[in-house]
Write a structure and sequence with these properties.
Order of helices and strands: HHHHEEEEEHHEHEEEEEEEEEEEEE
Largest sheet: 16 strands, antiparallel, barrel
Radius of gyration: 36 Å
Helix content: 10-25%
Structural class: alpha+beta
Number of helices: 7
Strand order of the largest sheet: 1-2-3-4-5-6-7-8-9-12-13-14-16-17-18-19
Shape: elongated
Number of strands: 19
Strand content: 35-45%
Distance between the termini: 57 Å
């Protein structure tokens, strides 16, 4: 029996039940009512069958015709029940609670460095080949966890988002001596973004976050091509972060270019705005402020699409910009605590980036002055500094083995390292040749050869050490 026939029979039954007394008088009266009901059902069924055979056969009824044919006859409509109205709250989409809008992600980097030749050891007072960015470059070698980051982020409302990042691979010295202890947790980022417009072009960032100085300094370590940041640019803001307030502005046209580059798999520096202006404590990551002065920072970068220059530049993007910083900083001193003197810490920098499509060039340089240990006077003084790097790369995406990005970088720096005790002087010249292999999105390998000539970041050691190393890293993203 079809749905239409069932509906008609059911309606007839409902009609009979409504017209029947609640209780029959006797068995004979009940039998009579049953016989009448059977007769009406049989007549109604025969009429429906005859009506169906008289109608033309169609291949597929339209939705409107199907709805019309499913409707009961007009004579029976009086006993049909109208559907209950759906409450407006049931049809409206429920907004998710804020804790369901948060996401959890992260990455881990494991390294192994091996000396091919060079000054992995040296007599007391002379520099050993060491890097302030990777403590596992030493005469002891072995595997090390460079980073183990976990990020919690998300939008808690239409205008407010949060970002919280910790590193589970921080090392500290034990309290009884100088032995390093690995695997301590350190706060890296803890900030909230407040968007001032519906398009989210303008934001205010409150909390501990990256200081907008230098292009590479703001780029995530998970996204950077080379194993470490350059000495010259990173010396402005070692550990890249501080506590303060910063405003970023990103025009929609610029954001569209960055979105296209990101979709193509390019290594961007992160959404820190085309323009940024901020104030920070100025003492450094997770360090207590020592004076009333605030670090003032300004940053600007702008991508230019080069399609108009001809077919050879189709899809190419050149990004250029600069940054400036004014600060007063009090370094740690060898006698304990921090310096009672606040030293000028001012600099300007420029950057340029031709995104690899497939060939690319990246370069930065900065000049300024900052605290530096003077061996002759055995004291910290404000001295000039300068340095930067030039990097080339070639991007080779494949369908079978992932993406290969061979690269080469030369870096140079002369100036103080304010994050070290007594702000020791660095004299760095380095060439790094390597290749990054992005096997899958979740797994990356980096293999590099490095020639280094460095002054160790220790005011008690003089001269420069030289050596050749093989450096490797595996990174897994989650």
């Amino acid at each position: 029996m079809t749905l239409r026939m069932r509906l008609a029979v059911g309606t007839a039954l409902a009609t009979m039940m409504l017209s029947t007394p609640v209780q029959a008088q006797d068995n004979a009266d009940l039998q009579r009512q049953i016989d009448e009901l059977k007769a009406q059902v049989q007549a109604l069924t025969a009429a429906l069958v005859a009506n169906k055979s008289a109608q033309p056969v169609v291949s597929a009824p339209t939705p409107a015709a199907a709805a019309e044919s499913a409707a009961p006859p007009v004579a029976l409509a009086a006993v049909s029940t109208a559907p209950a109205a759906v409450p407006p709250s049931a049809t409206a989409a429920k907004s998710k609670p804020w804790y369901e809008k948060l996401s959890l992600r992260g990455y881990t980097q494991m390294r192994y460095n091996a000396f091919l030749s060079g000054d992995d050891t040296a007599p007391a007072g002379q520099s050993r080949l060491r890097s302030p960015h990777d403590s596992s470059i030493s005469d002891r070698g072995g595997f090390s966890l460079r980073r183990a980051r976990l990020v919690l982020q998300g939008d808690v409302s239409d205008r407010v988002s949060l970002y919280l990042q910790s590193d589970f691979a921080t090392a500290v010295n034990n309290q009884a001596g100088t032995e390093r202890r690995e695997g301590f947790v350190q706060l890296r980022d803890a900030y909230a973004d407040v968007f001032l417009d519906k398009d989210k072009n303008v934001r205010l960032r409150f909390g501990q976050s990256k200081v907008p100085f230098g292009w590479e300094n703001m780029q995530s370590s998970s996204n950077r091509l080379t194993l470490d940041r350059s000495d010259a640019i990173n010396s402005a803001v070692p550990s890249e972060r501080d506590l303060g307030i910063v405003s970023y502005y990103t025009p929609s046209s610029v954001q569209q270019i960055w979105d296209r580059l990101g979709h193509d798999g390019q290594k961007l520096f992160g959404n820190y705005g085309a323009f940024g202006v901020g104030v920070f404590n100025g003492q450094g990551t997770n360090r207590t402020e020592q004076n009333r002065g605030l670090m003032k920072v300004a940053f600007a970068t702008w991508p230019f699409e080069l399609d108009g220059l001809g077919d050879a530049f189709e899809g190419q993007v050149l990004e250029i910009g600069g940054s400036a910083m004014m600060n007063d900083v009090q370094p740690e001193v060898r006698s304990g605590g921090v310096s009672t003197i606040a030293y000028d810490d001012d600099r300007v920098g420029i950057h340029a980036m031709l995104y690899p499509q497939p060939f690319g060039i990246q370069a930065e340089w900065n000049w300024g002055k900052g605290p530096e240990y003077d061996v002759a006077s055995q004291s910290i003084q404000t001295k000039n500094l300068s340095g930067g790097y030039v990097q080339t790369m070639y991007r080779l995406p494949t369908e079978t083995i992932g993406t290969l990005i061979p690269y080469g970088r030369w870096q140079h720096y002369r100036g103080g390292w304010k994050a070290g005790i007594n702000a020791p002087r660095l004299e760095t010249d380095e060439i790094e040749l390597g290749v990054e292999w992005q096997l899958w999105k979740a797994l990356e390998f980096t293999f590099a050869y490095s020639w280094m000539k460095r002054a160790e970041a220790d005011d008690r050691r003089t001269g420069r050490a030289e050596g050749n190393l093989i450096r490797t890293q595996v990174q897994w993203n989650y």
